[in-house]
């Protein structure tokens, strides 16, 4: 199967370093529409949808493969292979895509130059006393149960929490629309993989430069989670964005662009 079509790959730019963007759970590549114009003349930009999301080929969805984050990491690697990318790639990931990008980086380290991680969380569970991811297991199990019982109700409930604004807000509506356009079976499996994954032990294996962008008020990834990421990723840079919600690339895109441009302008050893 043509992986460019399978993952709805879109490439813009005619040269320069490669930026490839990975979406958060329930989202699609259009969520980056406010970021990409800032890099249109300096980078080649690659946008794609994981199988089961956005405009990807749903017929390619395999429940066994996509029950684990490694399946989505393979999508990322497949897209790079289809574009003949072998090195120098900067991965920009949001939310669970941060974990997906790191897993891909571990599998194919020579492919990546650096990573930008927006709102990352290696584990969403509270596992006291050493780690607080933000959620009790019963809360996440209840969220999945709501998906099973009332998918539309789940979407309208979760979208404002992620957006950090009241129901009916611009970004909450955009997220709810994205959730509702995603196949419920694929979304349920991706949710399970997202909310119950735990890559904490993998972070110390990463040697690539990483920019960690943490939201100041984030119901999904509290400040302590960003600190944990920063401490575990050797040589990473942490920047806290004065943002409410989990989607600064949508709600406060100028802050994200500024942070990325500043980071890209520094020597990699900085």
Description:
By secondary structure, this protein is an alpha/beta fold. The protein has a domain at 3-123 and 199-264: Alpha/Beta hydrolase fold, catalytic domain (Rossmann fold), CATH 3.40.50. 39% of the residues lie in helices and 17% in strands. It contains ten helices and nine strands. A seven-stranded mixed sheet has the order 1-3-2-4-5-8-9, with helices on both faces. The chain has a two-stranded antiparallel sheet with strand order 6-7. Helix 8 links the parallel strand 8 and strand 9. It is globular. The mean pLDDT is 94.
Beta-strand residue fraction: 15-25%
Identify the overall geometry.
globular
CATH topology of the domain at 3-123 and 199-264: Rossmann fold
**Can you identify the CATH class of the domain at 3-123 and 199-264?**
Alpha Beta
**Major sheet strand order:** 1-3-2-4-5-8-9
Q: Mind summarizing the main beta sheet? A: 7 strands, mixed
Name the poorly predicted regions.
Answer: none
- Radius of gyration in whole Å, from Cα? 17 Å
Distance between the termini: 42 Å
Mean pLDDT: 94
Please tally the β strands and state the result: 9
Q: Identify the CATH homologous superfamily of the domain at 3-123 and 199-264.
A: Alpha/Beta hydrolase fold, catalytic domain
**What is the N-to-C succession of helices and strands?**
HEEEHEHEEEHHHHEHEHH
- What share of residues is helical? 25-40%
Per CATH, the architecture of the domain at 3-123 and 199-264 is: 3-Layer(aba) Sandwich
Number of helices: 10
Structural class designation: alpha/beta
